[in-house]
Design a protein that fits this description.
- The complex is a heterodimer of chains A (about 140) and B (about 140).
- With about 140 residues, chain A is of the alpha/beta class.
- Chain A is built from 5 helices and 7 strands.
- In chain A, the strands form 2 sheets. In chain A, strands 3-2-4-5-6 form a 5-stranded parallel sheet, with helices on both faces.
- By secondary structure, chain B is mainly α.
- Helix content of chain B is about 70%, strand content about 0%.
- In chain B, α1 crosses α5 and α5 packs antiparallel against α6.
- The chains are: A alpha/beta (about 140), B mainly alpha (about 140).
- Chains A and B meet through loops of A and α2 of B.
């Protein structure tokens, strides 16, 4: 799937939705190593928690994160359901860039993700520097 | 000549370990969580091929690259050494996120913190050598 690189700006708000503590740490660490000051990172252990926070932000008139790294195999509500619920909250043109970070070698999910209108990209865990470079076209980091 | 061949085989093995992501701590973490087949596939296929080739070499009595007889010494039958050693090895593997082969691969790939693990492993082997007569096998 051709992924649109985002031109890097001074600050990005990034959200990691991941129930596995080690994977969450790996993603956060990779972002912080990639660029110290560029990212404001919020992490959520579940899709429900993220949705609640998003609703709260929207009520307050705040903007949603620019980029979401989403795990598919979450607890009660999985990544797919999260995207469905998120869509009902949003206008069409304000969808954040959602990147799926899924378990290695899960080819079925990859196919579905490629055809999903809300998904900007699909990566195998863990997040790496190369993948971030593909997402954020580097200007001045 | 002989050293050069060893070096080339080692380099090839290192590239395979890196490219197959067997040197990735995350793949090892997934393996220990039973989340992914990836590492089991690598280790399993290496094991099956190892069994086949060892048997082939033993039965066909082929000569080595240098024209010498290949002698594969039989392992001593023992439970304690494999149970204790395997458990300790597994703990270290999970803790460091790397087993002995990938330690060198990671050092070569520029992940410098692995040098702490590498030096500690060499020190551990040295300690084992000192304590060997006193340990159960």
């Amino acid at each position: 799937m051709p992924q649109k690189p985002l031109i890097i700006k001074n600050s990005y708000s990034v959200c990691i939705i991941e129930d596995d503590m080690v994977s969450q740490f790996a993603s956060r660490y990779c972002l912080e190593q990639f660029s110290k000051d560029t990212f404001a990172i919020n992490t959520f252990d579940s899709a429900e928690e993220a949705l609640d926070q998003f609703k709260h932000w929207l009520q307050e008139g705040a903007v949603l994160p620019d980029v979401i790294f989403l795990d598919l195999g979450l607890g009660n509500m999985d990544g797919w359901e999260f995207m469905d619920k998120l869509q009902t909250l949003l206008d069409k043109d304000s969808t954040p860039n959602i990147f799926i970070l899924s378990a290695f070698a899960n080819s079925k999910d990859r196919e579905v993700a490629q055809n999903h209108p809300m998904v900007s990209g699909y990566f195998d865990k863990p997040l790496t520097r190369n993948r971030l470079e593909r997402i954020f076209k580097q200007k001045e980091v | 000549m002989r050293s050069i061949i060893y070096l080339l085989v080692g380099i090839f093995f290192g590239i395979v370990l890196f490219k197959s992501e067997a040197a990735s701590w995350f793949r090892i973490y997934e393996m220990f969580q039973f989340d992914s087949f990836h590492m089991y596939g690598i280790i399993g296929s290496a094991l099956v091929l190892g069994v086949v080739f060892t048997q082939l070499v033993k039965r066909s009595r082929v000569k080595s690259f240098f024209g010498e007889q290949i002698v594969i010494a039989n392992k001593e039958k023992s439970f304690v050494r494999y149970a204790v050693g395997g458990t300790l090895f597994g703990l270290g593997w999970a803790l460091a996120g790397a087993c002995p082969g990938p330690m060198y691969v990671l050092a070569g790939a520029g992940y410098w913190p692995i040098l702490v693990v590498l030096i500690s492993a060499i020190f551990g082997t040295f300690c084992y050598g000192l304590l060997k007569p006193k340990l159960p096998h």
